[in-house]
Amino acid sequence: MTGVRIIACSVLHHEITAILPALSKGRRIETVFPDSILHMKPHLLQKHLETLLADGVPSVLIYGDCAPAIDEICSSIPNARYTRIHGVNCTEITVGTERYAQLRKERAFVIFPEWACRWREIFEEGMGFRTAELARLFMQEHRSRFVYIDTALVPIPLRHLEDMKEYFGLPVEIEKAGLNILGENLELCIRELERTDESGRT
Description:
Blueprint (H helix, E strand, L loop, with lengths): L3 E5 L4 H11 L5 E4 L9 H12 L5 E4 L7 H6 L6 E3 L5 H6 L1 H9 L2 E4 L1 H5 L1 H8 L5 H11 L2 E6 L7 H11 L3 E5 L3 H22 L1
Parallel strand pairs: 1-2, 1-3, 3-4, 5-6, 6-7
Helix pairs in contact: 1-10
């Protein structure tokens, strides 16, 4: 296989970039990071993925179920050669199934560095909350707290987290997370593409 493309939500840009040196040994890896706001615009995300996958370059999708029926959509694209990393969303992809299940049970709203810095855009433009009162009522009804995932690759945006805490009236916790789970699963995906490519040549 001549090369692999990683198509990953920009919310994991820093994490994927940090892992790349270990993955790139003997491989040519291209990366594409579509804007994470597309998570809120699944029809645009679908079109973006269709454009990227149509050229037939073997690709790893670092996406959860952000777009309805994402696997069915991508598998129907002519010439598409891809595999998708395990996980229903960026939280499970990063911290693993067990921790994700626990956070979900506790009704935590997990936020990554990029979204912490863009939280007003995400909630006001992406989710459509036009007033602080509406956003606060919704979040307090459905969520218990914010959990910020700190992979130690960027400074913790303390000012933004404090603003969120005040705006929504919810506590904010900082949880440290490593890159092992993401790195191991990404390696498995690349190997899967390599095996598929080898079997196709025999």
